[in-house]
Every structure is written in structure tokens, then in C-alpha cells.
Design a protein that fits this description.
The protein is α+β, with helices and mostly antiparallel strands and 525 residues long. Among the domains are: 2-148, no CATH class; 323-386, Alpha-Beta Plaits (2-Layer Sandwich); 423-464, no CATH class. The protein contains 15 helices and 23 strands.
Length: 525
């Protein structure tokens, strides 16, 4: 329905542009041919030839397109702020209106007058020479009718341009993120500010294009939704520079974030339901649903690619039956017992190490392998033991959260990550693994009846996936809410690739030491 409305409005806008091109002394069809139309507009308004080449550069082409478009509209005397806004936001209304209005003429008739004189003098022999006359008339018109903006208009134009530019950059080019948790310690620290590239994997067209500028899903100060679902667009990704590679650090929308308990968003809604029951959660919290592009952002390492076989044994990740990548700074947690002197907790925190005292002389610490060897060497450390869950013992909120799979964060699998075009049998064993992807991510009605499974009303015994999926895990394996909780990440949830930290703030520091100077402009690998 939305797509049909969009097509109709585009046709109406094209009709209006056709009429305006005819008023400008051109053939109407020239106004609706992409690139060629912009070339004609550029020649009319005196833009250099190379300016058209900018239309081939993603993001930049949006600015160039609207610059040419508004220059063309100005040629009809439509220079007021509301006229510019109407031309951009409601072209399907104003373009046919101006095209059919006899009082709206191109360059106040200068172009037509000059064209008549040039023809009489035999100066016009080609369409190119017609453009030269139109361009000269455009410059004469600008000199004859200079337009002076008021201070209010200057400020309004600057604010609108800055908002549009920042929104486009944030949506299609680069976006800044802050690390709120320790799931990627020590690769990323709490308080790291980083830039994420939308261009590497290709920027997504927003699912919900109507949204408050610079807000993600919640309005600042006032609360409530910062977006409208009046217009919802299907998933579409523009071409990128590269494909996702195994072990990339990736930002994505939370797969389990389609539903949230507003007052307790730190815990996934489905984990709350398993702990409290759906009715209790509904009674205690305000429940809100969110489209894909407005779900919470997460950052993890992509350890599993579409079609990979994934498993974990005693805390060791296996990908296609081979030990998976372990970042040098990956952390596990340990129980450390000391003598009466205890550990220097502040020293450890200054090193970016998370520590909690369980009881006097007993600590739980998240450490890299190198850090673990260092702590173990201290004279007051009596013993040190890595914490691991036992195989075959089910752990709460471990994917796929089904009794037949006695899995935990240290021992699970094997299973295969879905890839586009992969067909899986549907039965009691596979349904817990792939059911949510089929129902929620790919938008199917999958139901279990007495005589078998039905997909969109038809009985089936297999399913072929429409998207690629990924397996995302934090480097801090025992302090990370990741795919082991909510499962696969669909390709339409991928936001971008983490590039580098541009600032790092240590809340536990003092004075200038609050800034981690050694992390500024540090690349992310």
C-alpha cells in the first residue's frame, strides 16, 4: 500500500516537473530523465560540467541533486523559505500547481524574450545554443532581481541545512557511538567514544524515515517515541565497500529489541518473560515495540558467518570444527583467593580491569590471559581458578531456550548459521533453533498444528532462508549479553563497522587522567 502511494506521488511530481521544463523552453520529457535532467538544470543555472560528476558519489549526490533542483525552482521566482520547503517536502502538490499556473513563468519571461531575439538573429542552431541563451537569461535575472535574505531567514536556512546535512551524514556515512558496558573489554572500554562507518557494508535506507533529528528511538527530555511508523519502508541496503568479514567488530540493532519493557530496558524483554511470566511483565512495565532501525544498538565481534557451523566447548569457541579467533585482549573471569592483605583494587581498575570482592580475600576478576598470568604471579595470591560452566548443565537464557537443548554460555552447539538460500528441515529439533528467524526476522506465519507445521497456511517440512545471518559475541566472554542469549543476527539489523575511538573517558580517573590519552584515534581490530 505504502509503495503504491509512493509511486503515484512520484508520477504526479514528475508530471509537474514536465510542465515546468516546458515553461523553461525545454522539452517536457527532459525533466524526468535521471542525470540528463540534472545536466540540463546545471547548464541552465551556469554550473560547471564537472558538477554533474558529483551525482555519482553516494551521499554527496543528495546535496547536489537538491542544489540543482532548488536553483531551477528559483528561476521561477520561487525563493521564499516556505516555497523552498514545499518544493522539497511536497513536490507532488506544488510542482503541478506551479506548472499549471499561468502567472508562474521562467525567469519572468527573460528566457523566452532572449530566445526570440536570438532566433531572429540566427544565433540558435542547436539545443546547446538554446541552453546558452537560457543560462545568460538566468544570470541576467539574478542580477536584475537580487534577493536579500532577512537575518531570520539566514538563521532558518543555516539550521535547516545543518540538520539535513548532519542527518544524512549520521544516517548514511558515519555515526558516533559510546560504549556503555564491558562486553568487549579490553578491545573497547566503558567510556570509549567511537566512529562507526555505514559505508563499509553499505548504508541502509531507513525503515522509518519520519523521525525527530538526532534522536534514536526516544525523545530527549520529554520521553516518548522519537519516530513515526506512518511510513514504513522495506529493507534495502545501498552498495558498500566490502562484505562483512569473520571477526569484524560490528554495530547492529538488537535482535531481541523488537519488544522492550520501557522501565527495564537493560534486560531483554524475552528474558523478563521467561523469569516472571508474560502476564506479570505486562502488568509491571510499559511494553513498547520498535522497528528494526529503532532498536537498541549493540557492538560485538562477528565470530560466525552465514553457513558456518558453530559450537563452544569448555569456554573455547569452534567455527567449522576449528578453534575460533580469540582476540589477544579477550577476557574470562576468575575466582582469585589472597591472603589477608587482599588485592589493590584501585590499581586493577586503573588498568581497566573489572573486579568485585565476593568476600574478604576472595575476588571475582575479568582478565585477559596476559593479565591472569600477571595476577597469578603476585606473592599474596594463594589460588586462581577460571570459572566455567559444566557441559550438559542448562544455563538460564541460553539460546535457543528450549528444554531439549541443555546448553550454557561455555558449552553449546553444534548448529549451522542460516545463509540466504539455505534450506533446513523443519521438525521438533530444528524449530527451536530457526523458528524465531522464520517468524520474526523473515515475516512468516509459522504455526504448529496436529498434523504438522504450516507456513503461511501451507503445510511444510522445510524452509529456505531469504537473508544471511551472523553470530555475534563479546570478547569478554563471561560478561557479555550476546548471541548466546538471543541467537542469530539478520543482515537487515547490521548498522556498520566500528573504525576507531575518537575519545575515551575514564569515569574513575581524576583530572586529566579521566581522559585515556593513549586510546584517542586508536583503531579497532
Amino acid at each position: 500500500m505504502i509503495l503504491n502511494i509512493f509511486i503515484v506521488l512520484t508520477i504526479i511530481s514528475g508530471y509537474g516537473f514536465w510542465l515546468l521544463f516546458e515553461k523553461a523552453g525545454r522539452r517536457g520529457w527532459e525533466g524526468i530523465i535521471p542525470i540528463y535532467s540534472q545536466w540540463i538544470q546545471a547548464r541552465m543555472t551556469g554550473r560547471p560540467y564537472w558538477y554533474i560528476g558529483l551525482l555519482l558519489i553516494p551521499i554527496v549526490n543528495i546535496f547536489v541533486f537538491y542544489n540543482l533542483y532548488l536553483d531551477f525552482i528559483h528561476g521561477f521566482g520561487k525563493r521564499r523559505f516556505w516555497e523552498n520547503c514545499a518544493a522539497v517536502l511536497f513536490p507532488f502538490i506544488v510542482l503541478p500547481w506551479w506548472g499549471n499556473d499561468s502567472d508562474v513563468v521562467f525567469l519572468n519571461g527573460l528566457a523566452a524574450k532572449n530566445m526570440k531575439v536570438a532566433r531572429a538573429e540566427g544565433k540558435i542552431t542547436t539545443k546547446a545554443s538554446e541552453l546558452d541563451v537560457t543560462q545568460a537569461a538566468y544570470q541576467e535575472y539574478k542580477a536584475k532581481y537580487p534577493y536579500k535574505k532577512s537575518m531570520l531567514r539566514e538563521w532558518a536556512d543555516a539550521i535547516v541545512f545543518a540538520t539535513v546535512a548532519a542527518t544524512l551524514i549520521r544516517g548514511f556515512l558515519l555515526e558516533a557511538f559510546m560504549i556503555p558496558s564491558g562486553s568487549m573489554q579490553q578491545i573497547l572500554l566503558i567510556g570509549d567514544y567511537l566512529f562507526v562507518s555505514k559505508l563499509n557494508y553499505g548504508p541502509r535506507i531507513p525503515n522509518t524515515p519520519i523521525a525527530f533529528p538526532f534522536a534514536h528511538h526516544t525523545m530527549p527530555v520529554f520521553g516518548g517515541k522519537a519516530f513515526s511508523e506512518l511510513i514504513k519502508l522495506p529493507y534495502k541496503r545501498l552498495p558498500g565497500f566490502q562484505e562483512i568479514k569473520r571477526n569484524d567488530v560490528v554495530v547492529f540493532n538488537a535482535p531481541a529489541g523488537d519488544t522492550v519493557a520501557v522501565e527495564n530496558q537493560d534486560i531483554p524483554y524475552y528474558d523478563l518473560v521467561r523469569a516472571m511470566g508474560a502476564e506479570a511483565v505486562q502488568q509491571q512495565f510499559t511494553i513498547q515495540t520498535r522497528p528494526v532501525d529503532k532498536r537498541e544498538h549493540l557492538i560485538k565481534r562477528c565470530v560466525g558467518m552465514p553457513g558456518d557451523k558453530i559450537s563452544m566447548k569448555e569456554g573455547v569457541l569452534f567455527v567449522n570444527d576449528q578453534p575460533g579467533f580469540v582476540a589477544p585482549e579477550s577476557q574470562m573471569d576468575y575466582i582469585v583467593m589472597t591472603d589477608a592483605t587482599g588485592l589493590d583494587e584501585q590499581r586493577l581498575r586503573d588498568m581497566g580491569i573489572e573486579i568485585a570482592q565476593v568476600q574478604p580475600g576472595v575476588y571475582r576478576i575479568f582478565l585477559t590471559k596476559e593479565q591472569a598470568n600477571m595476577v597469578k604471579s603476585w606473592s599474596n595470591v594463594k589460588s586462581m581458578q577460571m570459572i566455567l560452566e559444566k557441559s550438559g548443565v542448562a544455563q538460564e537464557n541460553t539460546f535457543p531456550n528450549d528444554p531439549q537443548y541443555q546448553w550454557n554460555y561455555d558449552n553449546f552447539g553444534p548448529f549451522v548459521i542460516p545463509r540466504k538460500g539455505m534450506t533446513v528441515p523443519l521438525n521438533a529439533q530444528t524449530l527451536p533453533l530457526y523458528g524465531r528467524a522464520i517468524r520474526v526476522y523473515e515475516g512468516n506465519n509459522l504455526e504448529k498444528r496436529a498434523d504438522g507445521l504450516y507456513l503461511n497456511g501451507s503445510k511444510v517440512d522445510s524452509y529456505t532462508f531469504k537473508m544471511d545471518y551472523y553470530w555475534m559475541m563479546g570478547d569478554n566472554r563471561h560478561n557479555s549479553l550476546d548471541a548466546r542469549d538471543w541467537g542469530f543476527v539478520p543482515e537487515d539489523h547490521i548498522v556498520g563497522k566500528a573504525l576507531f575511538t575518537w575519545m575515551s573517558w575514564n569515569a574513575d580517573g581524576n583530572g586529566l587522567s579521566k581522559i585515556r590519552w593513549n586510546r584517542i584515534f586508536k583503531g579497532i581490530h
